[in-house]
Every structure is written in structure tokens, then in C-alpha cells.
Amino acid sequence: MNVYFSNSTSNRGTPIAVDDMQNSSNGDAALVHLGEPAPVNQNMPLADSYDATAGDSGVIEGYGLRANRVPTSRLYKADVSILGESTDAYGGRAIHLEGVNGSSNHGDSGGPLIVNGQIVGVCSTGDSADPGSDFHADSNYANLTDSRQWIADVTGV
Predict the structure, then answer these.
(1) What is the CATH superfamily name and number for domain 57-146?
(2) pTM above 0.85, yes or no
(3) Fewer CB in 10 Å around end: N or C, the chain?
(4) Where are the domains positioned within the chain?
């Protein structure tokens, strides 16, 4: 597996090989270790904890397909409304949300859910076959804060 650092879908940049991967026992989350360092100019903080509360709002980001399975040309963002708790693809606690002006689609897996300026989840599953054609489609984001201690144990950060 390779990781790319780029904001372009036409020029992914130089590949960096993954030399280790570990999965969380708390659900649909994993960490990859890169074979060589990759500088990151900025990072968004991971929330200490988050309980999905109906009516909360957030933002999702991703490079997933557009409506009718059209490939994306750039990073997209959408505003979302939290509906409550759900379950991710591996049985972990998840955040169930509905798109306000866009929704996640195939290829968005692992993309962030940001609430109050902090990452609280990663894209796990959608509730529709082609959610990109429905701006208000529902999806489930693995609650990443449940894996916070595991992340600290594995990374030392």
C-alpha cells in the first residue's frame, strides 16, 4: 500500500510505502506507518471524546465519487447534521449523519467528520447505493474518539 500527500486527483504526488498497519479493536479505524517520514504542515486535533447528539452540525471531506458515479476532480466538503449514534462496518460505535448540502460516497472511506473544529470520526458506511446523487443521504462515521487511547498507545503521541 502507498500513501500520497496531495490535494490533486490528477497529480497524486510521490508515493510513500506503508511498512506496517494496525487495526483498532474499537471499530472501523486503522493506523498505517510510513516507510519514510512525511512532513505535515498542519493537523487538525482529534477530539478527546464525542457522543453523537442529534442536531449537532459538522463537516465531512473526501475525494469520493460525485453523483452518478462520476469521478471527483478535487477534495470536496459538505455540511452535515448529526442524527445520533449507529454502528460502523466492524460493529464499533458510529455517528449517524445526514447531508445538508452533500453526502459521502464511494471513495470517501476514512475521510474525516469534523465537529467544532475537531476530528470526531472517519467515514465507514453509507446508507444508499449511490449517495452522491442525494445531497441528504445518510452515512455512518466510526467514532474515532473511542480509539483515542489505542492511537496514543500505538503512536506514542
Answers:
(1) Trypsin-like serine proteases (2.40.10.10)
(2) yes
(3) C
(4) 2-43, 57-146
